[in-house]
Amino acid sequence: MFTIGIDLGGTNIVASVVNEKYEIISTDKTPTNSPRPADEVFDDIARVCFSAVEKAGLKMDDIASVGMGTPGTVNGDGVIEFANNLAFNNVPARLMLSQRLGVAADKVFLENDANCAALGEAYAGVGNGAKNFVAVTLGTGVGSGIIVDGKIVNGINFAGGECGHMVIVVDGEQCSCGRNGCWEAYASATALIRQTKKAMEEYPDSLLHQLAEKEGKVSGRTAFDAMRLGDIAGIKVVNKYIKYVACGIINIVNALQPEIICVGGGICNEGDTLMDPLRRFVQAERYSIHSKIQTEIVKAQLGNDAGVIGAAILGYVK
């Protein structure tokens, strides 16, 4: 059996044909070129879907279902209520996909993109079929998706699972959502870059300056590279940043006790430099200190494929 998974992003539209083993067998993509009218975007979505099916040597009749992950909030009727980076308001995405692809509306499924990434990792990645699973992505923001009993947690308004917007510092740094002190304001790659720049002001002789000049910018790697060279400012930034990341992870562990929490995003390219101290923080501060079964904290496995695979799986689990 074959399904189509679509990852609608602010930069690219990706469509893949996925088999029953959750393996990608063909892919096509095109720039999103947002913001622009939804009709134009969905014309391109249909085009890459047809191309992916053709590359797989299949026909649309061979496709059992179509799933799409999108930024923003998607309601139970398949309407994208709001996606700010696409400039979408109340877009009838399920109907538009159904009409363009010639697929029955009840075979078209939509979800938030972070939820799709969580689903992909839970079923086809590091989750290994775990029924209680949380995926966290440390990127421009802090994205997250929660799987309980094998199902995505949406909440009553289809906007659940936004762990990045739980407050970890009351009256703290302002978050892009409008609140102050959100986990995202401290644990995102954007926050790490801001923390690095602040340290550069405080430590004018730090290696951070040389590394940033060499790279041409301050990035999420700058502080980690400086830390590895023994730079005091780099060490302080990294230690504090990992503590912020751990704070949110510990909150998730204490609230949900999932089998696995996977951490993804570009910062995870730091590997054990990030993950080992993160696990130590969680082990030291989790509430369930005496339990024989503990939540595993692991690095995400599927990378950029998580969202499109998760979207393709939607037809199995909805």
Structure, described:
The chain is 39% helix and 22% strand. The protein is of the alpha/beta class. A hairpin with a 5-residue loop joins strand 2 and strand 3 (24-31). It is built from 10 helices and 13 strands. The two termini are 17 Å apart.
Draw up the topology in text:
Blueprint: E1 2-8, E2 12-18, E3 24-31, H1 38-55, E4 63-70, E5 73-74, E6 80-83, E7 88-91, H2 93-101, E8 108-112, H3 113-124, E9 133-138, E10 142-148, E11 151-152, H4 184-187, H5 189-202, H6 207-215, H7 222-228, H8 232-256, E12 260-264, H9 272-285, E13 296-299, H10 305-317
Helix pairs in contact: 1-2, 3-10, 5-8, 6-7, 7-8, 8-9
Structure summary:
This protein is α/β, with parallel strands linked by helices and 318 residues long.
